[in-house]
Amino acid sequence: QVQLVESGGGLVQAGGSLKLSCAASGRTFSRYTMGWFRQAPGKEREFVAAIGWSITSTDYADSVKGRFTISRDNVKNMVYLQMNSLKPEDTAVYYCAARGDPYAIRDPSRYEYWGQGTQVTVSS
Questions:
Q1: Which of 26, 97, 110, 116 could form a disulfide with 2 if both were Cys (CB 3.0 to 4.6 A apart)?
Q2: In this structure, what is the dihedral angle of CA atoms 122, 90, 100, 79, given to the nearest 10 degrees?
Q3: Rounded to whole angstroms, how far apart are CA atoms 17 and 77?
């Protein structure tokens, strides 16, 4: 069982940066692939980034590649999403998710545990 709590959301101007954090409970955090997803009003939840058991196993949505960076700290049981060059279309509720397999994947239905989300608003 894993509990996830996101933080770091807020209001930022276009071109600015935010760093989201996700704190995870559980003794085997290193054995979970972690993902970030987002959902804008009226839209489906979409994949943003994921990191597998190995920190070299990462994947990014095309829309954020080169602007966002996912990372994890297995000592602190934390996963982060550094978001740079933010755009108004990045506005959404951002969710942290976990799955008990080693590889970073994009399908949200394959993730077993979810946080409550944190709002990110980018003004133009």
A1: 26
A2: -40
A3: 23
Q: Which residue has the tokens 């920190």?
A: 55
Structure tokens at 92: 């959404």
Q: How many CB atoms lie within 10 A of CB 17?
A: 11
Report how far residue 97's alpha carbon sits from residue 39's, in angstroms, rounded to the nearest whole number.
Answer: 13
pLDDT of residue 27: 77
First to last CA, the chain: 40
Low-confidence ranges of the chain (pLDDT < 50): none
How many CB atoms lie under 10 A from the CB of residue 114? 18
Report how far residue 65's alpha carbon sits from residue 115's, in angstroms, rounded to the nearest whole number.
23
**Phi, psi angles (nearest 5°) of residue 88:** -55, -35
Digit-coded pLDDT (tens) for 1-17: 899 999 999 999 999 99
Are 114 and 5 in contact, with CB atoms under 8 Å apart?
no
Structure confidence at residue 110 (pLDDT): 94
> With contact defined as beta carbons under 8 Å apart, do 106 and 50 qualify?
yes
